[in-house]
Specification:
Blueprint lengths: L1 H5 L1 H9 L10 H8 L3 H13 L3 E6 L2 E6 L1 H18 L3 H4 L6 E12 L3 E8 L2 E8 H7 L6 E6 L9
Antiparallel strand pairs: 1-2, 3-4, 3-6, 4-5
Helix pairs in contact: 3-4
Length: 160
């Protein structure tokens, strides 16, 4: 699943494909939007279809593809449950009472005398947290480490 979704063309295809009720984009149009050949799009659509993430219907010679939202939701839930174990963190993180755990890679550690800012890349988005330097030392946090950003209900993040 990770390999299939990790391909940049497939990932972009999933973003371009409409829901079933609006499945009116032919392969040629998808190829134009992604700036690849029709053949490349067709090959990637076959992989996504075989995985059950994409469906299609035919109208004459044209095939119209669409995303299966329920399948994507199931994949999202599976990855959310399985990724911590893949990184060897399952035992440590599963005992945490917080549900909002985002696993990523430490991309920056800014140490100061009292506090340390930890930056974690989570799927291309960087989350920063300030913790005590003593805590950062106890955890031995370093660039490249796999870590989790945990969100508690009383904290609010604002996005514009």
């Amino acid at each position: 699943m990770l390999r299939a979704l990790g391909d940049p063309v497939r990932f972009r295809l999933l973003r371009e494909l409409p829901a079933e009720v609006a499945a009116e984009i032919p392969v040629g149009e998808l190829a134009r939007r992604l700036e690849v050949s029709d053949t490349v799009v067709s090959q990637h659509l076959r992989v996504l279809s075989a995985m059950g993430l994409v469906g299609h219907h035919r109208s004459g010679r044209a095939a119209y593809y669409y995303v299966k939202p329920e399948a994507l939701l199931a994949v999202r839930q599976m990855l959310a449950n399985e990724l911590p174990g893949m990184f060897g963190l399952e035992g440590r993180l599963s005992r945490l009472s917080a549900r909002n755990q985002l696993i990523g890679k430490v991309v920056e550690v800014r140490r100061a005398e009292v506090s340390t800012e930890i930056c974690i890349d989570i799927g291309g988005q960087v989350v920063s947290a300030v913790i005590t330097t003593a805590s950062a030392d106890r955890m031995a946090l370093a660039m490249g480490d796999v870590a989790a950003a945990v969100f508690k209900a009383h904290d609010v993040i604002v996005q514009k």
